[in-house]
Design a protein that fits this description.
heterodimer, A: Arp2/3 complex 21 kDa subunit ARPC3, 6 helices, 70% helix, B: 277 residues, alpha+beta, Thrombin, subunit H, 3 domains
Chain lengths: 174, 277
């Protein structure tokens, strides 16, 4: 893990988390809320891999839970898994694909929403599945709108790695 | 291996935080740390909120505008629906009044003997070309050509064409209409024809007779059983409004004001004979 990249990613995720809790969480369109932190995490994870994704998710989730005085670890848990999963996708299948950020954002928005729903449900808290499901499509659309600028900015700060830096899925034997 | 280890550590860390935070959400060391972290983040949140405020205000303005527009459209729809409902109620009340009048007429002494009534409604109205209406009852209800049609106020005409479900009625205001009638106050008889401006004319009245304004004019009915009339005796037609004559005319011209309101026909009564004629 490159230290400079780590600092850049941390700043990005910090700003995204602050923006999310201060501004974007108030934007309700047809029941959906855009999640700039999630989109930034996807961009960081795709560009820097699963470890960056997992650590960034944990860090971003902790910021959100701290700032909102929510249950600590709740958002961290879901974002850690989301960041790791998107990072693995970036390291393997999605690394050269232009649509990877959009596909990842669309999929992870769904998984993140239901992941949070499940955790809340398991904890015995209010888990409004109906309203989450109704707001899902607008949230996906808004996150997809955010994806292009956020990914472009993240890509400027975190230059894509050269091909040899990527992890490989296939192990050659013999 | 490193990746999975990092993931496992982070997930366990998150679960540990979750467990501790969930167990003591408002107290404890972790809560204090969270409070300190929230205090540290607060300036950033406030700054972000202040930077975003103008944009949010603009968004709020347009969002409010859009909401107001959609609410306006919704309210307009509701007003239209309520107006429509109110109109239906007004129409229903009017029809109820007419039906009450019809019932009173049917049960009253002026209802002709040996007739039964079929109450129905007008479904098409006079045009610029014809003084005819269509009613929603036909031969299946016992109507036939010549059946007298009236409202609770008075006679309006007779059936000129009939189908099983509908019938065409020639109004007294049709130029071809001619009804034998009688002024029951003075016993004079004549023929009722359409006049000017929605009035009726009772003509062929002998000059020697002197009808008075306000005299009641009713149908003459059958005089000779060999030539039965469509109309039974005594159906109210109108009242005398004025009497005119000239030196060269052989008859009086009596202008009548019809009892029936030909411009607002709705509920009508068909008189069906109960005895074979």
């Amino acid at each position: 893990m490159n230290g400079v990249d780590g600092v850049k990613a941390a700043i990005l995720l910090f700003v995204a988390a602050i923006l999310e809790v201060s501004i974007f969480s108030q934007v309700h369109v047809l029941g959906g809320i855009p999640d700039v932190l999630l989109v930034t995490l996807v961009a960081v994870s795709l560009l820097r891999g699963s470890i960056f994704g997992a650590v960034g998710g944990f860090f971003g989730g902790l910021l959100v839970d701290t700032a909102t005085l929510g249950t600590l670890g709740l958002t961290s848990l879901v974002l850690t898994i989301a960041g790791y999963w998107i990072g693995r996708y970036g390291e393997t299948t999605g690394r050269d694909r232009a649509h990877a950020p959009f596909t990842s954002v669309a999929v992870v928005t769904v998984l993140y929403s239901f992941g949070l729903l499940i955790v809340h449900f398991v904890l015995g808290e209010r888990a409004p599945a109906g309203s989450i499901a109704r707001g899902l499509l607008p949230a996906i659309v808004m996150n997809l709108i955010l994806t292009a600028p956020v990914y472009a900015l993240t890509r400027r700060l975190l230059r894509p790695r050269v091909r040899g830096d990527y992890a490989t899925e296939v192990q050659l034997l013999g | 291996m490193v990746r999975r280890t990092v993931l496992a550590v982070l997930v366990i860390g998150a679960l540990a935080l979750l467990t501790i935070s969930f167990r003591s959400p408002t107290s404890g060391a972790l809560h204090d740390v969270q409070g300190a972290g929230a205090s540290a983040l607060k300036p950033f949140q406030v700054a972000a909120e202040r930077v975003a405020r103008p944009f949010r205000d603009v968004y709020g303005y347009f969002s409010g505008l859009a909401h107001a527009k959609s609410e306006n459209a919704k309210l307009k729809r509701e007003v239209r629906q309520l107006r429509s409902t109110e109109n239906q109620h007004v129409i229903a009340a009017q029809r109820l009044g007419e039906l009450e009048k019809v019932v009173r007429f049917e049960q009253g002494p002026s209802f002709p003997k040996d007739f039964r009534s079929v109450t129905t409604t007008v479904i098409s109205y006079p045009s610029a070309f014809t003084q005819e209406v269509t009613i929603a009852a036909g031969s299946s209800s016992g109507l036939h050509i010549g059946t007298p049609i009236m409202t609770a106020d008075g006679l309006i005409g007779h059936v000129t064409n009939v189908t099983p479900g509908t019938a065409q009625v020639m109004l007294l205001t049709d130029p071809d209409s001619s009804v034998p009638a009688r002024d029951i106050s003075h016993g004079l008889v004549g023929q009722v024809h359409p006049g000017q401006g929605g009035t009726l004319i009772l003509d062929r009245v002998a000059k020697a007779l002197q009808p008075q304004k306000g005299d009641l004019v009713v149908t003459q009915g059958t005089v000779d059983s060999r030539y039965p009339d469509f109309y039974p005796y005594g159906l109210p037609i109108g009242e005398v409004q004025s009497v005119g004559t000239s030196d060269i005319a052989s008859y009086l011209t009596v202008q009548l004001t019809p009892f029936a309101h030909f411009d607002s026909l709705d509920v009508v009564i068909a008189l069906i004979p109960t005895k074979k004629r």
